Amino acid sequence: MNKAVAQSKPILYFCERYDSDRGEIGVGVLFQKGDLTVMVKASDPLGLSTCYIQYDKYNCETGKYEYYKNFSFEVAPKNKYLIFAKNADNDMAFQKPGIYRVYLLDEGKKNVACGLIEIIN
Question: Which residues pair with 11 in a beta bridge?
Answer without folding.
Answer: 41
